[in-house]
Design a protein that fits this description.
single chain; 157 residues; mainly alpha; 0% strand; globular
């Protein structure tokens, strides 16, 4: 993406944030805030990377660490949105961080397999690569759904 890594975080955050916000209608007061928390939370670590590169600071960049940090930031903001309905919203912060970390781990695995030549070439390799990455989205969804389910059983209201 050239020098605009923030687009990576924004895209991932917007996609997941939209789906999660739709599911949370009726659970939280303003689902649009959920969407923006996910988009902003995932964008900030990537924006920091873009800024440090523009300033010519030689800091190491890893997509995977940025995604995990973004999951944490989004989780903190979203936990505040969940506080009106649930107790122990810190579980959400942990689940968001873990879920996004799993998603980034599958992307790392797909990259490693591709670079190592373990994936076939051509369309089958591309499909295998995408399937591996998709399991990260599945992991994110499962982890956050379990956390929300556990929090629902311990409602404040």
């Amino acid at each position: 993406m050239g020098g605009a890594q923030v687009l990576v975080g924004a895209g991932a955050g917007m996609g997941v944030g939209l789906l999660q916000a739709r599911q949370l209608r009726g659970t939280i007061d303003r689902p649009i805030h959920w969407f923006w928390s996910c988009a902003a939370g995932l964008s900030l670590p990537f924006a920091a990377t873009d800024i440090t590169r523009a300033a010519r600071w030689d800091l190491p960049y890893t997509l995977y660490v940025s995604v995990a940090c973004g999951g944490f930031l989004a989780g903190v903001w979203q936990a505040m949105l969940l506080r009106r309905r649930f107790q122990a919203t810190w579980w959400w912060i942990a689940a968001s961080t873990l879920g996004w970390s799993l998603a980034s781990a599958t992307a790392a695995a797909a990259d490693a397999l591709q670079r190592g030549g373990s994936l076939p070439r051509g369309i089958w390799g591309a499909l295998a690569y995408l399937a591996i990455i998709a399991t990260g989205g599945l992991g994110l969804g499962v982890v956050t759904a379990v956390a929300l389910g556990l929090m629902s059983r311990r409602r404040d209201l």
